[in-house]
Amino acid sequence: MYSVNQVKHLYVVSKVNDPGESGSASLAANDPVGTLAQQTSADGWFMFFKYIGNGGVITTDRIKKRKVKWVSYNSAASLRKNKRKVVITMNSGVNNGAPVIGQDYIINFAFKNYFGMSDEDTYEKYASARAFSNNASDLLINLAISAAKNFSREVDMPFTITAGGVEVTPTTKKEDFTGTVSDITLTEVEQPWNLGRMKQTRPDYKVHFVPVVVDNLERYDWGTATVTEVAANGFIGNGKETADLEWFCMGERGDQYRGKDWPLSITTPDSLLVNPAKEYNYLTIHFWDDIDNEGPQKSERDMVFVADSTNNVALNTIAVTVATFAGLDHYIADGVATSI
């Protein structure tokens, strides 16, 4: 699910105390869990943070001057995944967009990596309808109803099916439609998730059209499938993904088997702070340390701070502070190099 180069620590931040001109902030007795306080050494050669976790105050690794590779800040909005939408229509260039009477129209939905990670793990579903007239609207309605019935056997629906403004379910009837239907729309559905056990994946599929005979020629292109992934389709936030990352990083600190040796495992659920229903801003500091003589190689590390996007926690300000301290002339903000 995740990996670590050498060291990665994640901290869920609810409050940042002002370090002031001294470069070091203090922690108060009434500060909540998740409070972060920047600390700068007296000689100015390294900085670190004090942090209040569920178990009390802890201290992060030391970040030394000129030993930071990069600093990256990502807002929750930039980490959203826009939902996929597929709009299926008749191709006006084939028989003027009209069905050929007597032909069986079949749509193939080919899913990749459905049962596992291999490309061999494919799964296919179909929608089919016979054209009893040259009315495209009637054919599309029948195809939508067929798709809904065929997908009704699935435990989890990969998308919702709508046609002519009507959400099509296995119980939808032709009489439920009014007016002309010009397309079938498939809109991605957010998939189930279970912390540390089942990653939230996204349906990966393509739409294919089984050929029909038009003027004695087999035509695979009787339909069109237009795919979009834009904000207007709705989005999936990063709360569940952030919760998985926190769970993984907590395992790196102690229980690397992550519950597999239960009941002898170290349990961490009570120490986890991410709310999967929320969205989170990210600050990642990639730095290293080395020592003289036998240890001159770089020991690379990641320090990740996440904060609920609805809280007024200025992780981007910390990004500028760390980058400036490290002697960098820029940091990465939402994927763009930003000068300091």
Tell me what the structure shows.
Helices cover 13% and strands 36% of the residues. The chain is mainly beta and 340 residues long. It has helices at 136-151, 239-253, 315-326; strands at 7-13, 15-17, 35-40, 46-53, 56-59, 63-64, 68-74, 81-82, 84-90, 104-111, 123-130, 159-163, 166-167, 184-188, 205-209, 212-214, 217-219, 223-229, 235-236, 280-289, 299-308, 330-333, 336-339. It starts with 6 loop residues before the first strand and ends with a strand. It has 3 helices and 23 strands. Strands 1-21-20-7-22-23 form a 6-stranded mixed β-sheet. Strands 2, 3, 4, 5 and 6 form a 5-stranded mixed β-sheet that branches. It is elongated, with a radius of gyration of 27 Å. The protein has 2 domains: 7-78 and 237-339, no CATH class; 82-235.
Short description, anyone?
By secondary structure, the protein is mainly beta. Helices cover 13% and strands 36% of the residues.
Describe the biggest sheet?
6 strands, mixed
Please state the structural category. mainly beta
User: Tally the helices: what do you get?
Assistant: 3
Shape: elongated
- Straight-line distance between termini: 34 Å
Low-confidence stretches: none
The whole-number mean of residue pLDDT values reads: 93
| Strand coverage percent | 35-45%
The helicity comes to 10-25%
Strand order of the largest sheet: 1-21-20-7-22-23
Features of the shown structure:
340 residues, mainly beta, 2 domains, 3 helices
